[in-house]
Amino acid sequence: MVNEISETKITKWGNGHGAFLSKKALAAGNLTEGTKIRVITVHHNGRDILALEPEDKPTLAEKYANYTGTPETYKQPEDLKDWSQKRPTGKEIW
């Protein structure tokens, strides 16, 4: 099913291109000003269609869902060992 919301024209913006979206198109896509989106292609009925979808940021729990490390298994990178064992030489607050 295809719903035509509005027409727009692709225009040059600096080194890229863009298209203005009407309020009606934004509302139909559940988008608001400032929403980060991904542009994807969808193959439908023999045609490639550009689609916009909100870029969902994963929650902290989702980011670390597959994390298996623990503080006990943490290994400090070699390049940080010398730095972390130094004593303050000035008025640093550690």
Structure write-up:
With 94 residues, the chain is an alpha+beta fold. The protein has a domain of 45 residues. Helices cover 18% and strands 26% of the residues. The chain has a two-stranded antiparallel sheet with strand order 1-2. A two-stranded antiparallel ribbon has the order 3-4. Strand 3 and strand 4 form a beta hairpin. The termini are far apart.
Strand content: 25-35%
Distance between the termini: 62 Å
Tally of alpha and pi helices: 3
- Rounded to an integer in angstroms, the radius of gyration calculated over CA atoms is 24 Å
User: Globular, elongated, flat, extended or rod-shaped: what is the shape?
Assistant: elongated
The amount of helix comes to: 10-25%
**Number of distinct beta strands:** 4
Largest sheet: 2 strands, antiparallel
Elements, N to C (H/E): EEHEEHH
Spans of at least 5 consecutive residues with low confidence: none
Strand order of the largest sheet: 1-2
The secondary structure category is alpha+beta
Mean of all residue-level pLDDT scores? 85
Write a brief structural summary.
It comes from Lentilactobacillus otakiensis DSM 19908 = JCM 15040. This protein has a domain at 10-54.
Any descriptors?
94 residues, alpha+beta, 3 helices, two-stranded antiparallel sheet, 4 strands, SpoVT-AbrB domain-containing protein
Write the topology of this structure.
Blueprint: E1 10-13, E2 16-19, H1 23-28, E3 37-44, E4 47-54, H2 60-63, H3 78-84
Antiparallel strand pairs: 1-2, 3-4
Region (Disordered): 67-94
Protein name: SpoVT-AbrB domain-containing protein
Organism: Lentilactobacillus otakiensis DSM 19908 = JCM 15040
